[in-house]
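Hi C.,

You asked whether I'd gotten around to modeling the 226-residue construct. I have! Everything is below, sequence then structure, no commentary in between.
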Amino acid sequence: KYYTLTKDIYLNFYKKSTSEDEITYFKRITAKTVSESDVVYINRLDLIRKTYSGLNLWYSKQYLDVTKSYYIAKYTRGSSETEESLFKRIVVKESCETVEQYAERVEIVRQLYPNLVLWSDVKYYDLVKTVYQTVYKKSTSEDEITYFKRITTRTLQETDAVYLGRLTLIENTFSSLSLWSSVENLSIIKSFYSLKYAKLAGESNEAYFARLVAKESCDISDEVYV
């Protein structure tokens, strides 16, 4: 509301000085003052991020130790906030962000809150689809094996259920990848398939076998299915 009044102050006070290295600068602009409430801290950092939106500080996991307090405070579920409202707040694209920055920020939130069902439940797929399409696409600097290993890597503290659900959504997003159907990639995909096709408690043999051989929506051709 008052950003136009304070913009010049933010531009001058939070610019990088010639005597600062990058980490010192990043730590300075994200530091919380002793008497500052969480709400004021979040709002102030939001304005700094808006002022200096191009800093990779906000979007790189490399600086997560620096931004962790800010993002945890910002994306902690409020006492009167519903789960769905929180999820929508996490994935909304902000005006200062490019599509790539938006996806990278949401991925940082996922690193901090790896077990939100937002990341794994098909119910919320429309909310995270753009993020997954951006974060999990192959970069020009990656060879195929490096790419496959990256998108199947399990996040620290991620539960079996969330890992399984998230990889299933990635599989649906990039269903044409040979990763899912080539025996050459079995060592990479083994953990995912071991979870996906494990016999469930209370599941009959007949139901289990039928699930194993069922053609899935992400099987884009008979060749992939087989």
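If it helps when you're writing up: The mean pLDDT is 92.

Thanks,
B.
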